[in-house]
């Protein structure tokens, strides 16, 4: 256990709501940091994350939040955010979207992700009323008396399909995954004032709105095509991983795994990922992690997993396997050790996985097989 008087990392595995808020306030009032966990994650996944985050070890003086994330390897990482970074992000958001006397935030995203947690934080830091939905529900959303909310594309599709009046919201922040152009056109035609956002745990959430960096944010494209970000809302590093911190933070810049360009007038265009993370329904899914679980199925001898474009989910997880297994059986198998977002949504059986002359998996060919 930490020494007496040292700052601790308090893990909270509970859904959004009053209990979470009370525990959160208690931790911050005691000058401890908070690590939100997914309460619905399998126990094995939670234990793996806690083993990497080591809550029994003290945290640095400037750390207020540790947000769990993962890179292309799927290795759990904890982005450490300071009070200064969190407040800078909250204020920059409202500097961009404005603030009205009757504003009310509606929180309907999970709070173990930075995008959902930031709704709560903006409300509390800037004294804006908050409505909390423990989970996203279309009918409950329909009647919520709020002016601001944050969604992922999957939720937006569901709301449009149900004919929910989105015009009553002054701004809908849309992030978590790239939004298809036809979805944005559909939403705006229905009267929704959608603001597309780009950001990540390491930037305290969205730091680019509608292609324009928030005030105080600088973005540039590196020689290898990756985007680098600088600004007051950056993380201070990854918890207990100085090696990963040194790779990500270079001379004050966060080097991302996103490919993109900064065009005329500083407009940022994100074109893809430099790693193999699948973003589906606003959730990050590591393809190799899912493939490893799929390959352990008794009826599967080899497996590869890729993300393919999907109008509702952004990307859908597709398993390409050598063997004979139904999608239902495979999803049941994977659900024992993977979160729901990582479960395959389609399975394609092949005689052999395509490989390059080096023996490495031909990911482009696999993607073609997956559709």
Summarize the structure.
Helices cover 28% and strands 30% of the residues.
- Coarse morphology: globular
- Tell me the number of strands: 22
Strand content: 25-35%
**Distance between the terminal alpha carbons, to the nearest Å?**
51 Å
Task: Work out the helix count.
Answer: 11
Helix content: 25-40%
Largest sheet strand order? 6-5-7-8-9-10-11
Biggest sheet statistics: 7 strands, mixed
From the alpha carbons, calculate the radius of gyration and give it in angstroms: 21 Å
List low-confidence stretches. none
Structural class: alpha/beta
Average pLDDT, rounded to a whole number, is 92
Descriptors:
371 residues, 30% strand, seven-stranded mixed sheet, alpha/beta, five-stranded antiparallel sheet, single chain, 11 helices
Task: Characterise the protein shown here.
The chain is built from 11 helices and 22 strands. It has 371 residues and is α/β, with parallel strands linked by helices. The protein has a 7-stranded mixed sheet, with helices on both faces. Helix 3 crosses helix 4. The mean pLDDT is 92.
Annotate the secondary structure layout.
Layout: E1 9-12, H1 18-29, E2 33-36, H2 43-53, E3 65-70, E4 76-81, H3 83-97, E5 105-107, H4 114-125, E6 130-132, H5 138-142, E7 148-151, H6 153-161, E8 171-174, H7 181-189, E9 194-200, E10 205-209, E11 212-213, E12 218-221, E13 226-230, E14 237-238, H8 242-248, E15 249-250, E16 253-262, E17 268-273, E18 277-280, E19 283-286, H9 287-295, E20 300-310, E21 314-323, H10 327-334, E22 346-349, H11 363-370
Parallel strand pairs: 1-2, 5-6, 5-7, 7-8, 8-9, 21-22
Antiparallel strand pairs: 3-4, 4-14, 9-10, 10-11, 12-13, 13-16, 15-16, 16-17, 18-19, 20-21
Helix pairs in contact: 3-4
